[in-house]
Model the fold of this input.
Amino acid sequence: MKRTILSLILILSMGVAYAQVDKAAAKAAAAAQKAAKKEANNQMVTAQKMFDTMNEALKQNAAALTEDQVLEECIKGGELISKALKSGLIDEKKLGEAYKLSNDFTLRINNTLLGRASSGEAFDTTLFYNNLRAMTDGLHNELLNTKVQKGEYGNEKYLEGRKNNLANSGDYFIYAAQFENECHRVKNALEAYEFAMNYKQTYPEIAEQCQLRIPEEQIAYYAYHAAHEAGMYDAMDKYYDKAVTFADGAQGTKQVKIQSFLERGDTVKWAENAKIMCLDAPKENEDLIQILLAYYQKQGKEKMEGFADEVIAKDKDILIANYGKAYVKFAAKEYDEALKYYIRCTEIKPDYYDAWYQAGLCKYSQAMELNSTISSIKNQKQAKEALDKTKALFGEAIPYLEKARECAPDEPHKWAFELKQCYTVMGQSAKAAEMDALL
Done:
């Protein structure tokens, strides 16, 4: 029984001790809170005095302070009021007043730095960007925390002016992005571009009156290409869908996207996207079609021919696709089919040497292959028919080879040999001698 009573006494005494500790902790916390609140208010009062002193000096004498001195005072004052606001301890009734003071500093900093930028003077681009963020958030919060008072002595017109300040500041984020990008601080640049793109959503109170100097898709275009230059491929992917809707830069944006896959070492993705781009607009991408044909050729002539067929199905007048198709058919010794596509090439581009030469080579190759079989034909009639056919094929090659000659008259090494052979077979010795002299 005595032990039980003793235990109860110990428990009760411990409870009293804990209660005393909790009371002391609460008292200390309250004291700390009171001190912090007092500090926040003192910061606000000090910042206000700094602004008033500076403003009064400038009113008395515009040259009382240099621009650098004014900028320095505004930065110090802005930092002080920013600390007070971040503490969260400013009285709710004074929040509008606190944000007004913050804006008085940030607006002056913003205007000073913009003035330096427009006159080509050096200035701190990061300060411009960070101040801009503080300024627009400050304007937004001043509007939220200031009660509108109408009438002759009200603040309605003043707040409308602040609203205009906020609405007109969206463009500054585009400037900030360009400044930071030029200084190779691409992360800041992309943040600024994105802030500009989402400006109306971030500050809905000015959405109707805010008119950015360039559309969102053009801002995305700038962000996309800034990300590419920095090798920030995830950011590129993020901005691509919007950037490609900027009509004036769409083609370049698509090309950069495709190029980026090669930079990443992903040739499969490169080929997939390049193919989509080529089939979407064959005429605008003939150079890329040529590169893709070479890519598919390494994977097999069937792949190359399949791609050529897809392009021709979209646009039958794509020169390189027709040439690629002819190349595959020629390699398969399907000379008649190859000839059709080589001739199509000459219809598209009448001075296309390669197509004329290859068209002649179709007939020339047929003649050479048939000629190589004549000695093995035992039937004299059949042998003569084969010989006549061979001679006819050599003759049919001549017009195409002569057209090739017209396209490259100063390069006889490209066509003289075959023409010599053809003229020799046809019995035109003078022509054959002319070609021989050119070799």
Notes: The mean pLDDT is 93. Residues 2-60 form the longest helix (59 residues).
